[in-house]
């Protein structure tokens, strides 16, 4: 069917100081991207960036960001992302750069990729553990990474009840 | 998109403080406790306000305080939390969040959301739960189809369904192929589901059409001949043709048909037409048996009437039910001997079946196929006898199966299907001599005289095969016969019965002179009296035959045991002899052309044998017709069809009312803008025929008509006609005595009909000048006046054939042509006829006004004014401005007014249009036999005579016909066929 098509970029915010990552904010990311695009591509880029550009998701703990660009001009906008060197959040300048991990047509594919990627990360961490306690924690988290049956059920019920409220 | 994970970030407001505190005081121990959402969230519900949108409920809440250090554990925890959030987002479907969304696109189907059964089974539960609140409760699950179709259960079900409406024996056969209608307490096939209008007509005129007429009710009368005749003579009149006492019928050689009136009421209060059949006399006995076949509508009235004239009010309780006390039956015997058969039996049977179902043991009797009348309770008396006259009336409804074969080849079909019964083997009989057989045929075989009779009947039947067409026989011929079970000679494939090889032999000259002589005699005299005897008349034989019928299953078993597959069973099983009666059905008897069209045979069988004869008949290539076809049959015959064309009978009136509501409903189903506006077409009553009003108005016109009609602006009739009319009126007035308005009657007096028929014909027509003109009195004033004194309020059954094109429809108007119209006709026969000027619809504006409300009244009145201007020119010729103005002045509640129809009461029906209305058409169609439009209907006798008198000789009998939805008049020739 006919629909508005977009590209979703799954980016990783790399910072030197991890604690600063927690300051991350969707508005801050959006401002940083806009500024970078305006700097690299001028007014034209800034204009493109104002149409349907959106930061869909920010995780301050992991530094994951979903960016939405229009499909028409996502390459142009993407090309400006490496020029981001810092994100200004909460009055602080966080030096960082964005690493694009995945480009997807839907947010779903990005999410799927992120799941795979994160799991991979955890599995990679496991052999590098320094002590027993750490290893135990990571192992537990790896096990946590899947949705339990009961969990799922509960979630569905929840969504249902939500719907009921909406109706 | 819904259900997406929300960004995990710290509120910007709290970051200042939180960031500081976390940096300063936050420990690594805080991490795990903060990330655990389940403990955190309920404790600090107020914190959520600052969050962007709130988390998933279990999706991990994050503390507002920032951890200072990064450890592997925290890192991993954050990752796993995110993975979970993402997983949830991925697994939960997007879009409408309905289960359908979970399906990949290529598996989605239309209407899945409405019918969960269209979903794959794994998703059905969820979908049901989601949609469950809206859906209604599921119906109670019925038994599986297999269980329902099991023989016993099926039979129970059939019996249950037969309780309300009677089923004919061929019901199942018909139900598979016909549109069934519930009529007159029966389930009858109306028309086949396949297209066969023309094939059926061709079958009637060329081969054979079969109908099941078992729904006709048979009433048996037994008693002394003179007493029977004396009582029955009250019901009929000699004036309307031969009665019950006609010599040929009385001998039992012919079937008669007669119009029955209420006792001594002729010519008013007719009941309806019946056919009757006397049983041939037995030697030296004056005890006679008579069958009267009547339509089920009039059965009740007829039975009542018969009981009164025969003084039979003593119901004989059927001996089958000893349980019922006589007290229960006796009270019903008085004035109304037929107790309501619906209520009592129904409840009884219901309780019976319930008991049977509740205790499922084998003690209950196995379900039996209902033969005969399923709706009647066993306690209803079917026999009445009179102590004074000794007459016994027996209600044989559904006791005798009646099939009608119509068409010239009916006898070939019969000859091929039925074979005269073969004798029983003498040796077997000798073996059985000691014990007398329970079957009737072996018993009969022992009797020499009976076998002689059978031989003679078989000979006659054999001769019958040789005739060329069914119509050659004298009408109403009866032949009794005993035949073999026709199932034994069932062909393996459907074949078309052709004229018998006997006829071929005639051409070759093989047949002896004797046969030829016999055939001629048969054609001239019919069957001799003793051959009309049949054992079908005897109750005991009928019951015996019905009870001992070989079941289909048994027959098939016997067939399978035959040595050569497909060969005939021999010897014929002893049970396989059936007494039947063949009754010849006359075809078209009236009129000149197509005489004896649609003749055929009626086949009377004992009950229970219906299907055994039906299927073999069908296998002989006959067409099957329903009720629709019998209507067409009588229409082509030019005969009135009961109850459609009997407006003076109660049944006919009732039928007309039903028809009106039906047509009105159909009319009202259309949106008003798409309806025919009958007011504009000048059609007062498109759905019914106000016969009474018509007759009264014509009476009035004739009595005081002249000046009134002039005043009405009737410029149509020529001036000389007017003067003549005035003369007539004056002469008329002397004679007519003012009498109270009586009910209409249909003219059935044969003498009068013959007179009228002669008058209708143009005297200058060349060629076929009718021979009986010599005895006709000339048509003049005095003759008409004398005729009208006798039949002033009568209607007469006429046939109208159109001269040029046009197809008359139901309730088309029969009108009087004016002198100018006849001039038009003189120019050329191909002239199409005059036009009716369109009428004004005064009601339309009023309906509009009512809808718009009072504020718009002014504009609508204005519009009506303009409307009036438009149609002013024709208003000069508009016959009766007073009448058309009349409803306007009368204030009426117009709530139930239907757009496009005249509201009651109707204005003058005769003079509403520019041509005077004489009557209406009750059956009109393109006649396949005549090749032109052909209509049957009634006209007022008074109007008709008046018209005929005023018409010039060469155009006498020329009338106009106009369909209700048309403005075009067509010329039609009137014919009264006697």
Automatic annotation (TrEMBL), chain A:
Protein's job: Component of ribonuclease P, a protein complex that generates mature tRNA molecules by cleaving their 5'-ends.
Family statement drawn from the similarity comment of this UniProt entry: Belongs to the eukaryotic/archaeal RNase P protein component 2 family.
InterPro entries in the record: Pop5/Rpp14/Rnp2-like (IPR002759), RNase_P/MRP_POP5 (IPR016819), Rnp2-like_sf (IPR038085)
Region (Disordered) location: 148-167
Signal peptide: none
Protein name: Ribonuclease P/MRP protein subunit POP5
UniProt keyword annotations, A-Z: Nucleus, rRNA processing, tRNA processing
GO cellular component entries: nucleolus; ribonuclease P complex
Recorded GO MF terms: ribonuclease P RNA binding
Bias type Acidic residues, positions: 156-167
Entry's localization field: Nucleus, Nucleolus
Gene Ontology process terms (BP): rRNA processing; tRNA 5'-leader removal
Transmembrane feature ranges: none
SUPFAM superfamilies: Rnp2-like (SSF160350)
From TrEMBL, chain B:
Feature: compositional bias, Low complexity: 856-884
Span of domain Pop1 N-terminal: 75-150, 157-223
Domain of life per record: Eukaryota
Keyword annotations: Nucleus, tRNA processing
Region feature Disordered, mapped onto this chain: 1-63, 128-150, 332-384, 705-734, 825-901
One GO-annotated biological process of the protein: tRNA 5'-leader removal
Residues passing through the membrane, by range: none
Annotated ranges, domain POPLD: 600-691
Protein name stated in the entry: POP1 homolog, ribonuclease P/MRP subunit
């Amino acid at each position: 069917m006919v629909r508005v098509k977009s590209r979703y970029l799954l980016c990783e915010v790399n910072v030197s100081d991890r604690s600063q990552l927690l300051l991350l904010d969707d508005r801050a990311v959006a401002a940083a991207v806009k500024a970078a695009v305006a700097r690299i591509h001028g007014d034209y880029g800034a204009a493109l960036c104002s149409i349907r550009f959106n930061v869909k998701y920010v995780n301050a703990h992991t530094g994951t960001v979903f960016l939405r660009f229009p499909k028409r001009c996502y390459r142009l906008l993407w090309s400006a992302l490496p020029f981001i060197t810092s994100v200004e959040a909460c009055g602080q300048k966080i030096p960082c750069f964005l690493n694009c991990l995945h480009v997807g047509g839907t947010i779903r594919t990005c999410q799927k990729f992120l799941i795979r990627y994160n799991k991979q990360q955890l599995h990679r961490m496991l052999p590098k553990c320094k002590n027993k306690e750490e290893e135990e924690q990571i192992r537990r988290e790896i096990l946590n990474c899947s949705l339990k049956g009961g969990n799922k059920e509960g979630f569905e019920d929840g969504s249902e009840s939500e719907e009921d409220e909406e109706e | 998109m819904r259900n997406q994970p929300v960004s995990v970030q710290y509120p910007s407001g709290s970051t200042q403080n939180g960031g500081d505190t976390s940096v300063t005081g936050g420990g690594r121990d805080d991490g795990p406790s903060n990330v655990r959402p389940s403990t955190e969230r309920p404790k600090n519900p107020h914190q959520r306000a600052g969050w962007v949108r709130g988390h998933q409920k279990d999706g991990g809440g994050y503390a507002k305080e920032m951890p200072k250090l990064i450890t592997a554990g925290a890192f991993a925890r954050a990752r796993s939390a995110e993975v979970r959030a993402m997983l949830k987002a991925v697994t939960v479907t997007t879009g409408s969040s309905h289960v359908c969304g979970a399906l990949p696109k290529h598996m989605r189907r239309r209407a899945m959301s409405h019918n969960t059964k269209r979903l794959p089974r794994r998703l059905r539960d969820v979908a049901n739960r989601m949609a469950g609140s809206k859906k209604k409760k599921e119906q109670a699950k019925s038994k599986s189809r297999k269980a329902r179709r099991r023989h016993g259960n099926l039979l129970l079900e059939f019996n249950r369904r037969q309780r309300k409406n009677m089923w004919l024996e061929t019901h199942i056969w018909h139900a598979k192929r016909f549109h069934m209608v519930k009529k007159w307490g029966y389930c009858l096939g109306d028309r086949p589901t396949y297209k066969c209008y023309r094939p059926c007509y061709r079958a009637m005129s060329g081969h054979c059409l079969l109908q099941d007429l078992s729904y006709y009710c048979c009433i048996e009368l037994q008693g002394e001949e003179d007493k029977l005749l004396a009582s029955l003579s009250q019901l009929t009149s000699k004036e309307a043709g031969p009665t019950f006492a006609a010599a040929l019928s009385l001998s039992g050689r012919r079937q008669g048909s007669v119009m029955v009136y209420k006792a001594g009421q002729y010519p008013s209060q007719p009941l309806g037409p019946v056919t009757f059949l006397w049983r041939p006399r037995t030697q030296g006995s004056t005890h006679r048996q008579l069958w009267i076949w009547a339509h089920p509508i009039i059965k009740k009235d007829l039975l009542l009437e018969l009981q009164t004239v025969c003084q039979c009010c003593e119901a004989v309780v059927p001996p089958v039910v000893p349980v019922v006390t006589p007290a229960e039956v006796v009270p019903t015997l008085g004035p109304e001997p037929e107790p309501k058969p619906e209520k009592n039996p129904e409840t009884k049977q219901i309780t019976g079946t319930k008991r049977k179902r509740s205790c499922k043991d084998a003690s209950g009797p196995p379900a039996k196929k209902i033969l005969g009348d399923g709706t009647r309770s066993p306690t209803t008396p079917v026999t009445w006898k009179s102590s004074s006259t000794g007459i016994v009336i027996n209600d044989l409804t559904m006791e005798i199966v009646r099939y009608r074969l119509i068409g010239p080849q009916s006898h070939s079909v019969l000859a091929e299907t039925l074979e005269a019964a073969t004798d029983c083997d003498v040796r077997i009989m000798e073996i059985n001599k000691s014990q007398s057989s329970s079957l009737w045929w072996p018993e009969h075989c022992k009797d020499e005289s009976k076998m002689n009779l059978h031989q003679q009947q078989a000979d006659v039947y054999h001769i019958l095969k040789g005739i060329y067409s069914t119509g050659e026989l004298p009408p109403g011929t009866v032949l009794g016969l005993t035949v073999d079970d026709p199932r034994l000679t069932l062909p393996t494939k459907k074949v078309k019965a052709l004229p018998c090889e006997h006829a071929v032999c005639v051409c070759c000259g093989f047949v002896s002179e004797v046969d030829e002589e016999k055939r001629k005699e048969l054609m001239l005299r019919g069957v001799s009296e003793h051959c009309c005897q049949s054992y079908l008349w005897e109750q005991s034989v009928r019951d015996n035959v019905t009870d001992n019928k070989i079941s289909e299953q048994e027959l098939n078993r016997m067939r399978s045991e035959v040595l050569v597959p497909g060969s005939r069973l021999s010897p014929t099983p002893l049970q396989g002899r059936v007494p039947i009666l063949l009754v010849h059905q006359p075809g078209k008897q009236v009129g000149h052309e197509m005489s004896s069209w649609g003749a055929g045979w009626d086949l009377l069988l004992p009950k229970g044998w219906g299907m055994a004869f039906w299927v073999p008949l069908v296998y002989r290539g006959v067409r099957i017709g329903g009720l629709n076809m019998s209507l067409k049959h009588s229409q082509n015959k030019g005969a009135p069809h009961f109850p459609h064309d009997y407006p003076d009978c109660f049944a006919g009136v009732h039928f007309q009312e039903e028809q009106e509501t039906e047509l009105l409903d159909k009319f009202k189903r259309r949106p008003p803008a798409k309806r025919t506006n009958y007011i504009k077409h000048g059609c007062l009553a498109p759905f019914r025929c106000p016969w009474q009003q018509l007759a009264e108005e014509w009476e009035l016109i004739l009595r005081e008509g002249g000046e009134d009609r002039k005043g009405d602006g009737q410029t149509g009739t020529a001036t000389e006609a007017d003067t003549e009319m005035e003369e007539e009126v004056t002469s008329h007035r002397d004679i007519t005595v003012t009498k109270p308005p009586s009910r209409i009657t249909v003219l059935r007096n044969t003498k009068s009909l013959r007179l009228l028929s002669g008058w209708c014909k143009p005297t200058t027509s060349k060629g076929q000048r009718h021979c009986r003109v010599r005895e006709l009195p000339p048509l003049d004033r005095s003759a008409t006046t004398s005729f009208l004194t006798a039949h002033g309020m009568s209607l007469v059954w006429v046939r109208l054939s159109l001269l040029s094109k046009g197809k008359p429809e139901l309730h088309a108007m029969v009108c009087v042509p004016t002198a100018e119209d006849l001039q038009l006709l003189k120019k050329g026969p191909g002239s199409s006829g005059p036009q009716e000027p369109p009428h004004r619809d005064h009601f339309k504006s009023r309906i509009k006004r009512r809808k718009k409300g009072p504020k718009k009244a002014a504009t609508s009145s204005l519009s009506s004014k303009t409307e009036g201007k438009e149609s002013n020119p024709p208003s000069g010729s508009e016959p009766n401005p007073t009448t058309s103005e009349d409803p306007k002045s009368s204030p009426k509640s117009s709530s139930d007014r239907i757009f496009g129809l005249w509201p009651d009461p109707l204005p003058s029906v005769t003079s509403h249009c520019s041509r005077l209305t004489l009557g209406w058409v009750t059956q009109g169609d393109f006649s396949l036999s005549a090749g032109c439009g052909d209509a049957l209907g009634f006209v007022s006798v008074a109007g008709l005579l008046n018209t005929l008198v005023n018409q010039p000789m060469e155009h006498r009998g020329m009338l106009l016909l106009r369909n209700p939805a048309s403005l075009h008049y067509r010329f039609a020739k009137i014919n009264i066929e006697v």
